[in-house]
UniProtKB/TrEMBL annotation, chain A:
Tagged with keyword Oxidoreductase: yes
Pfam family, one: Ald_Xan_dh_C
Organism: Streptomyces sioyaensis
Name under which the protein is recorded: Xanthine dehydrogenase family protein molybdopterin-binding subunit
Record keywords: Molybdenum, Oxidoreductase
SMART domains: Ald_Xan_dh_C
Organism classification: Bacteria, Bacillati, Actinomycetota, Actinomycetes, Kitasatosporales
Automatic annotation (TrEMBL), chain B:
Domain of life: Bacteria
Iron as UniProt keyword: yes
2Fe-2S ferredoxin-type domain mapped to chain residues: 21-97
InterPro entries, sorted: 2Fe-2S-bd, 2Fe-2S-bd_dom_sf, 2Fe-2S_ferredoxin-like_sf, 2Fe-2S_ferredoxin-type, 2Fe2S_fd_BS, Aldehyde_Oxdr_Iron-Sulfur, Beta-grasp_dom_sf
Native organism taxonomy: Bacteria, Bacillati, Actinomycetota, Actinomycetes, Kitasatosporales
GO molecular function, one term: metal ion binding
PROSITE patterns: 2FE2S_FER_1, 2FE2S_FER_2
Pathway stated in the Swiss-Prot or TrEMBL entry: Alkaloid degradation; nicotine degradation
Protein name as annotated: 2Fe-2S iron-sulfur cluster binding domain-containing protein
Record key words, sorted: 2Fe-2S, Iron, Iron-sulfur, Metal-binding, Oxidoreductase
């Protein structure tokens, strides 16, 4: 903790002010350049060749037809591509051997003078395979399921407290339900793209990534270079939502192709191929069992999930983790089981673990409320723990109750007739639902440099990434507040691995991690300035700081953000279409550092949660082994007309146990809770408990008909 | 701006002559005379050959709207247009919305409302919104326009109208509520439609 926090009282440049995005003008005039928008002289274009079998080995690659096309520079395959060092992340071992671990795995790369020719060349490459039988279907009883030792985020795969079985068997009221979340896809609007350029043994890439420091380190390792010989620029990034968290195939392929051809190479992944190579949220089959007394207080809680990973590496969606800290649960069991299938490798998607896990848990809590005939807000209030159940640590701050109460008031939750199927408007049935949200507080070491220039301006350098959060703006606010100078005198440099290394934009910890380093550097600079007499030297004064020590300290507190989401939906009894009417979230996430950009992030997360509830989901095709919904025509994300009324609010939360800014992360909590709130509202509208997302018409209509006919 | 002829190589190296054609495209009031590979889309021509990277490639399949530009004043997905078929057309991209340093009212409104986050869909949203303002002014109905509306009168841009008309432009960051407000703001401003596409249609 910094000994010198921000001055209290009305500071001249308060954190929290709704400052407009610094790069806004570039973005609305089209001058902000993204990774694929840098075209060095002599730049060639690459187009990947994806495996058309789900499992097997490459027996031959016939590139003759491709190479015969005018303008083709090269076809890289596992036989001629540059050798890479063994990758920490095996999804980056591209074109290194003949193995095909899943359909869509890249098996070759065509490089040509023009984009059109590269694409034609890729289509002309003939690849032969020795295929093997594949298995891509996750089921709750899959024989290959095993208990994972570690789930994503470093959490133990299994936790047990007390006697779950005994207390569950003894409980007067129980819920035992299984919920299904299908594979989900990040689909940031900017496809993963890289432009790579080698010069004098140095590699420079413009990459669409959430963290250029990590990309730089990984490229240096793969190509056996010192990091000082690799520069990664991620100046403007068109969203990521986890799928650009670490290097993805495009940057490695572009660098390989540039080395192989001796020319700069640009590679932008085709949208249809993204589902297979940039990661996805793995499907989960989640069994939740709740045992409660007649008063609704939980005595037993089990959350057991089954999920898939690929044969390339183990990634376990930590969906049962939030059940460890959410509610009073003296007897608890949380288990993650995973099966490696011949599927694309899953990865992070906005709020991994919390988003699918809280859908299931908060649906089950709603089921319990229905059984007990207790208001679902009230039921949650009754299960508020004194300390974090899993660790018995005190919460640094926990204002779930405040969020529920404030949300209920703003939403007009009460009076609420709990009966389903009684609110009609013509063919529509209406209902309301609520769910809680949570997301952990993380922080990672970062470094920053602050400089005072002779002209009275300040320069702050930190390799943060702005993936749409407004990082430049909020970091300038943090620096200005620490320096107690006007914000417009602070210049911010981010998005380049030559800057002081910093954490990637992920885990809702970007602002906390970068901001802490920026704050520390600025405080050090302030101390230097205090002791400096006379005009500044021509080069100004510079202070550097890193937060390795601060980030490594284990907090004695359990630190999480909380929220409550309220939804109203309509279900069309003729078409089966479920639509959102309104959505309202209230969050307690520490100090909000920029109310304007924060509101946008909360609402953005809620919108993605709405997609998860009503339209998003893909299926693995058992015959071909790939995702059936792999483009934006078949994988539906919310559009403007799907979002009638959506608002986000927050409580003023003071938490001195976080970081000098007093902030928790806000990038992910918006998606958590939204799907459950919508699904609970659907149940309130119709009386139908659909435990299988999304609530699409093909599933809803048969259930509505069955219910109307008295069989549902 | 005076018409100019920027570098004419519009299609990369060397396919046979029968697969290339010369054409003229007017982009943001600049005439470009180019020889294009017949496979080249308007989007790739803008981005890879003219250096106009404002129009974005989100899907390359007409599914996301990030590449939206105005073609003779009406919005279109430039990834679905082969350049060779657009000879003589007048295009407006996001780079052509502002007048010098003076932003288009839509651009101002997007900034005022924080109607974007990552910014990648934003140029398409802006061009699409410019098209919406013109279409509404010209009385084009949408799915939510009441059947009783006078087909010769401008359509009032209610929030429902804007949401419906802007639904061809995906925003994964979820800026939709602010986009609706921004389009409404710009539509209500004097001059909000003045530079919109409607005028160019008459040319």
């Amino acid at each position: 903790m910094s000994p010198d926090p921000f001055p209290l009282g009305p500071p001249p440049y308060p954190l929290g002010a709704p400052l407009a995005r610094r790069e806004g003008r570039e973005k609305v005039t089209g001058t902000a350049r993204y990774a694929a928008e840098h075209t060095p002289p002599g730049c060639a274009y690459a187009w990947p060749v994806a495996a058309t079998v789900a499992r097997g080995r490459i027996t031959a690659v016939d590139a003759a037809g491709a190479l015969a096309l005018p303008g083709v520079c090269a076809v890289l395959t596992h036989e001629n591509a540059p050798r890479l060092a063994v990758a920490d992340d095996p999804t980056l071992s591209l074109l290194q051997d003949d193995r095909v671990p899943h359909r869509g795995w890249y098996v070759a790369l065509a490089v040509a003078d023009s984009l059109e020719t590269a694409r034609a060349a890729a289509e002309a490459v003939r690849v032969s395979y020795a295929t093997e039988e594949h298995d891509v279907l996750l089921t709750a009883g899959h024989p290959g399921l095993y208990e994972a030792e570690i789930a994503n985020g470093g959490y133990p795969g299994t936790r047990e407290r007390g006697d779950f079985e005994g207390e569950f068997a003894a409980a007067p009221v129980t819920v035992d339900a299984t919920y299904i979340v299908p594979p989900l896809h990040n689909h940031p609007m900017e496809p993963h793209a890289s432009t790579a350029h080698w010069s004098d043994g140095r590699l420079t890439v413009h990459d669409s990534s959430q963290g250029a420091t990590k990309v730089c380190e990984d490229l240096a390792a793969l190509f056996s270079l010192d990091t000082s010989r690799v520069t990664v620029v991620s100046e403007h990034v068109g969203g990521g939502f986890g799928s650009k968290g670490t290097p993805r195939p495009q940057v490695v392929l572009a660098a390989m192709a540039a080395r192989h051809t001796g020319r700069p190479v640009k590679l932008s992944l085709p949208r249809r191929e993204m589902a297979a190579v940039v990661g996805h949220r793995a499907p989960t089959v989640q069994r939740v069992r709740l045992g409660a007394g007649d008063d609704g207080v939980l005595t037993a809680l089990a959350h057991e999930i089954a999920t898939h990973t690929s044969t390339v590496k183990e990634f376990v969606e930590q969906a049962a983790v939030p059940a460890r800290m959410m509610y009073t649960s003296p007897n608890s069991r949380t288990v993650h089981r995973v099966v490696p299938l011949d599927v694309p490798t899953p990865s992070w998607m906005r709020a991994p673990g919390e988003a699918p896990g809280m859908y299931a848990l908060e649906s089950a809590v709603d089921e319990l409320a229905v059984l007990l005939d207790v208001d679902p807000v009230e039921l949650r209030l009754r299960n508020e723990p004194d300390t974090e159940p899993d660790s018995d640590r005190a919460f640094s701050s926990r204002h779930l109750i405040g969020c529920l109460r404030e949300g209920a008031k703003r939403f007009g939750w009460l009076p609420r007739d709990p009966r389903p199927g009684v609110r009609r408007e013509g063919d529509l049935l209406l209902g309301t639902g609520v769910a809680a949200a949570t997301y952990p507080v993380y922080v990672a070491p970062s470094s920053a440099e602050a400089q005072a220039a002779a002209d009275g301006s300040y320069r702050v350098r930190v390799n943060a990434t702005d993936i749409g959060t407004g990082a430049r703006t909020v970091l300038a606010q943090i620096a200005a507040a620490a320096l107690t100078v006007p914000e417009e005198r602070v210049h911010i440099e981010i998005g380049n691995s030559d800057l002081p290394p910093a954490m990637l934009a992920g885990g809702s910890m970007g602002t906390a991690s970068w901001g802490w380093a920026v704050h520390k550097a600025c405080m050090a600079l302030r101390a230097q300035l205090r002791h400096h007499d006379g005009p500044l030297p021509a080069g100004g004064l510079t202070a550097v700081a890193d937060t390795r020590q601060e980030a490594a300290e284990r907090s004695p507190y359990a630190r999480h953000a909380f929220g409550a989401t309220f939804a109203e939906v309509q279900a069309d009894t003729v078409s089966g279409e479920v639509r959102l009417r309104r959505l309202l979230g209230v969050y307690a996430a520490g100090r909000i550092l920029n109310s304007r950009t924060a509101r946008s992030q909360f609402i953005g997360g809620m919108t993605m949660g709405l997609g998860m509830a009503l339209m998003e989901g893909s299926r693995l095709d058992p015959a071909f082994g790939d995702f059936a919904e792999c483009d934006l025509a078949s994988y539906h994300v919310p559009v403007c007309a799907d979002v009638p009324q959506i608002e986000a609010h927050w409580l003023d939360e003071e938490d001195p146990h976080l970081n000098p800014m007093g902030s928790k992360g806000i990038g992910e909590i918006g998606i958590v809770g939204t799907a459950a709130a919508v699904a609970n509202a659907f149940r309130h509208a119709t009386g139908i408990r659909l435990r299988d997302l999304p609530l699409s018409a093909d599933k809803v209509l048969p259930r509505l008909r069955a219910r109307q006919e008295g069989t549902g | 701006m005076e018409p100019t002829s920027p570098p004419a190589d519009g299609g990369g190296a060397a396919p046979a002559a029968e697969s290339r054609s010369e054409l003229v495209l007017h982009v943001n009031d600049v005439a470009y005379t180019v020889t294009v590979d017949h496979r080249t889309t308007v989007l790739d021509l803008l981005r890879e050959h003219f250096g106009l990277t404002g129009a974005k490639k989100g899907c390359d399949h007409g599914q996301c709207g990030a590449c939206t530009v105005l073609v003779d004043g009406r919005r279109a997905n430039s990834c679905l247009l082969l350049a060779v078929a657009q000879d003589g057309r007048r295009l407006t991209t996001v780079e052509g919305l502002a007048e010098g340093e003076r932003l288009h009212p839509l651009q101002e409104a997007f900034l005022d409302r924080d109607a974007f986050q990552c910014g990648y869909c934003t140029p398409g949203q802006l061009c699409s919104a410019a098209g919406v303002l013109a279409e509404a002014a010209d009385g084009f109905p949408s799915h939510v326009t009441p059947a009783t509306a006078d087909p010769t009168a401008p359509v009032a841009l209610t929030a429902d109208e804007i949401r419906e008309r802007m639904s061809g432009n995906l925003c994964r960051c979820g800026a939709y509520p602010r986009i609706v407000e921004a389009v409404a703001d710009a539509g209500a401003r004097p001059g909000g439609t003045a530079r919109s596409a409607g005028q160019e249609v008459a040319r």
